[in-house]
């Protein structure tokens, strides 16, 4: 039996919070979004989003889910300058300078984070009440959360409180104050740094014939990391470089240009040799991936759920943040339709987080600088993953399955199906025979 709410309060007004507010409108006419930051009426960056000016791309699943809730959103973004890129003609993915097979039919949409949030706010905010304040605590009665308390001394009652405050969520602190157990936390110290800058672009300009380039430097490279170029609009290129540990990029424009010049993929050297910088270099440091396993707690109050980065935050080079937030919002809607207890919601989240965590962590455990205990079976998983990845460079079927997993259309287990493993084995055998 579907749940009907008198009021829902969403804590946090970024992407995850806006998506939660959107789906909650199907269950209540009274949705309140509590956000301490100003929510501007124009597509400008917000101080609360420290990585807002960095490279963002909407992967396939994110495009589909956002289009479901906001039918004209993608067209609106394109009308405001975003450029759709197809894998057949416009974009290429490289691994250590070697071209990965393009997969027909895949479209990816590089987008400026402030522009995306601007359009989401245009859809959502007219339907909700916005309270500009900071939540400091939960209001609790018995075994149920009944609302939130704010820094300005207000208590906002609610049948459901959704924590969408991101990586810095204080939910565990709030739970401990009212004697509820906190979830187990898993953390993987990455020490990732990435830097982004804009370059001037002439209308219809391409770089080495391409609109978009994604370059992965594998864990066996001298400087593992990911670099990307894409058109921000008709007037600007947006370019990002990343690396780990002591190799993290700086804000020095000369350092940025030098990294582009030694990037093994197409496009990067041409960018810095033919285009003028359009501003300074902004950097962001991502210290660790983290997940909070709410499904493991024995007691949890009714009337409260977290979603998005408040549950799990992954290595951003894989682009899982926005599609994960959309999946969590979808899980929230499915749970409310089911009428089940909060455990049903956390089981839905567990499946989603496990899949995204598996995709990122298998690769991250191979980083040479990472100081962490590898799980049992790590070497075998790395060997299988490496064989599949190499096969995706040559075999169209493996490349298509790989792209489906990257775009989050398929669970990572799709890469372990017999036809994929068989082709990966054949590719590895040919590779050894040819000495390639």
TrEMBL record:
Transmembrane segments: none annotated. GO terms for molecular function: monooxygenase activity. It comes from the Bacteria. InterPro entries: FAD/NAD-bd_sf, Flavin_halogenase. PANTHER family: THIAMINE THIAZOLE SYNTHASE (PTHR43422:SF3). This is 2-polyprenyl-6-methoxyphenol hydroxylase-like FAD-dependent oxidoreductase. It comes from Actinokineospora auranticolor.
